[in-house]
Amino acid sequence: MCGIIGYTGSDAAVPVLLDGLKHLEYRGYDSAGIAIQTDAGLTMIKTSGKVDNLAAKAAVTEGLEGVCGIGHTRWATHGTPNDINAHPHMSADGRFAIVHNGIIENYLELKKDLEKKGIVFASETDTEVIVQLLAYYYDGDVRRSLMRTIRRLEGSYAIAVLCAEDPGTVYAARMSSPLIVGLGSGENFFASDITALIQHTKDVIDLEDGETAEIRVSGVRIFDRYGAETKREPRHILWDIAAAEKGGYPHFMLKEIMEQPQALQATLEPRIKNGRIHLDEVELDMAKFNRILITACGSAYHAGCVGRLVIESLCRIPVEVEVASEFRYRNAVIDEKTLVIVISQSGETADTIAALKEGKEKGASTLAICNVVGSSIAKLADQVIYTWAGPEIAVATTKGYVTQLIVLDLFAVWAAEKLGRLDEKTYGKLVKEIRALPSKAQRALDLSSGVGRLAKSYHEKSSLFFIGRNLDYAVAMEGSLKLKEISYLHSEAYAAGELKHGTIALIEPGRLVVALCCCERLYEKTASNIEQVKARGADVLAVAPESNRKIYGEADHVLQVPDTADLFEPVIEIIPLQLLAYYVALENGCDIDKPKNLAKSVTVE
Ligand code: AGP
Predict the structure, then answer these.
(1) d(Cα 566, Cα 221) in Å, to the nearest integer?
(2) Which one is catalytic: 57, 484, 594, 600?
(3) Considering 435, 454, 477, which residue would you say is the last residue of a domain?
(4) How far apart, in whole angstroms, are the C-alpha atoms of residue 161 and residue 358?
(5) What is the domain range of residue 111?
(6) Which of 2, 297, 315, 519 is an active site residue?
(7) Residue 521: is its pLDDT beyond 80?
(8) Residues 178 and 37 reside in one and the same domain
């Protein structure tokens, strides 16, 4: 939800922090701030708006010289995103400054206690109670006081703390919010995410829940929840700074759309050997399960909707799919014969984490499909299949989503074979189809060169419908979400056959209907739904396989995609819809990588 960074070294801290915050901005961007240890004590600047506003303010602020500091970019949860509520927050005595990602659930109770003791609060945030409590408990030993403080906190936090009396040290603590330590040479870091540090170091340690840590130029110390020092081997990051930069594209989203063939290939390659699928990371006795429950949020949920149809069709096991925010409170009937699959790009989505815990508590086996190594979800699940999409920066997921789809496809074929549901010939054919997906994704990108022109005629539409059947409907949901979240146009995804049961009343002359027609076996059915909306004056934009010539007699415009086996077509079909959303948002002058009100990683309920 927010991005935090801490630095200690010999370079000027301000540029290091600002640069790190720019890379973390995808996590939240309504206000930002930094605090620096200077000769005059702790100096802080903060401002509403994006990190560029903060950089402009830093450029004209004197007295920010220092080599140790903390920074924050915020997605507001408590209090409006103004200068006062922006982080860092300082204790009333000016001794401590803190940045925080997470939510302190018992902050009102703690705040009341502290106010009774005469402490005056400056902001409306939950975060300020942490720093005021820390100052209250301070006994000359920062770490001991910090441990005492966090024992009183309920909720989630990744925090970094500066103390005016402890130059060159940044303290941190973590509970249910991501925080890594970056190990540099003569400098060390904390950050929410490696993208903030990759240009300084590729060696990181993931802090665990309940741990506290200290970084100094001389080294890093990590302590467990009881205060005992622990030693941990760093992990080495394999990708480099180029993966976290725009690489010549105007937006991360466009770059990530274009990277999809490579992301699919990277996810696939280690898992297909000699024509067979190897999920070496998975130890599951598929015969043990009598049902599968897939749960996730947003686009990851849409990937789950595709997964349900593919797994059910190949494995013949009942599969349910549900948004994690509903599943977590449903008291679902699941047991040790249920396999719960959670899907998450970030691995930090609060509702998905809660759903995963719920599944585990009820005795189900759990499998995560996740893009971030060492994330909370990856750590919690019994088994993990990683999507090797690389860092995804744009808030709207693209390569994250398609790599989730290809993992679900691999899993479905792998599981069906384990269950003895596939003969050799069909198995070989399916593997061949999956292997062709990266190059078909490239072809889909090549065929989509006209999408920008179409966006020019569609960007002023006020309300759109995405329709499709079966897998096309699952893709329609994702296409509709992409458009909504980055272009702010209202759109709805509808099962094509369901329109006539009410919603068709909204079809009127000029209404744009995007009809997904890649499910070959259902094409004639969708075609008749197209006729129904055309008869009421709708403009129809169809997405259809190259071989489908009939569609030109039905739709006003056609976006072609390469022919693909029905089961795997979602991987390809979504590509022109991602580009449509992108170009419509571009026409409308929207902030594509950082859409309003959103954040990349939703770590609150
Ligand atoms: C998609 O474009 C969204 N930004 C959002 O729906 C996202 O997929 C959802 O918040 C889940 O995130 P996760 O995959 O990181 O768990």
Answers:
(1) 53
(2) 600
(3) 435
(4) 33
(5) 3-242
(6) 2
(7) yes
(8) yes
Domains identified in the chain, total number = 3
User: In this model, does residue 229 exceed pLDDT 90?
Assistant: yes
Q: Is 456 a catalytic residue?
A: no
Task: Please list every protein residue whose CB sits less than 6 Å from any atom of ligand 1.
Answer: 297-300, 344-346, 349, 352, 395-397, 485, 601-602
* CATH number, position 534: 3.40.50.10490
pLDDT at 257 over 90: yes
Burial group, residue 418, by CB count within 10 angstroms (0-12, 13-18, 19+): middle
Tokens of 260: 């999809």
Whether 186 and 257 share a structural domain: no
116-124, long-range: CB < 8 A, 24+ apart = 119/92, 120/92, 122/84, 122/89, 122/90, 122/92, 123/79, 123/84, 123/85, 123/89, 124/78, 124/79, 124/80, 124/84, 124/85
Instruction: Record the tokens describing residue 239, joined without a space.
Output: 């990708």
Is 68 labeled as catalytic in the residue annotation? no
- The domain boundary residue, chosen from 200, 226, 242: 242
CA distance 530 to 538: 9
pLDDT digits (tens, 9 = 90+) for 546-585: 999 999 999 999 999 999 999 999 999 999 999 999 999 9
Task: Please tell me whether the peptide bond between 318 and the residue prior to it is cis, using omega within 30 degrees of 0.
Answer: no
Cβ atoms of residues 480 and 493 within 8 Å: yes
Q: Are residues 312 and 431 in the same domain?
A: yes
CA-nearest residue, atom 8 of ligand 1: 299
Shared-domain flag, residues 299 and 255: yes
**Is residue 487 located within the same domain as residue 603?**
yes
Residues 165, 36: one domain? yes
Q: Strands 338-344 and 365-370: what pairing?
A: parallel
Q: Are residues 273 and 235 in the same domain?
A: no
Mean pLDDT throughout 335-348? 96
Residue 14's pLDDT band, with cuts at 50, 70 and 90, is very high
What percent of the residues of the chain are helix, what percent strand, and what percent coil, each to the nearest 5? 40, 25, 35
- Burial-class residue 71 by CB neighbours within 10 Å (0-12, 13-18, 19+): buried
Domain containing 63 — which CATH number?
3.60.20.10
> By alpha-carbon position, which residue is closest to atom 16 of ligand 1?
344
Question: In this structure, are 349 and 373 located in the same domain?
Answer: yes
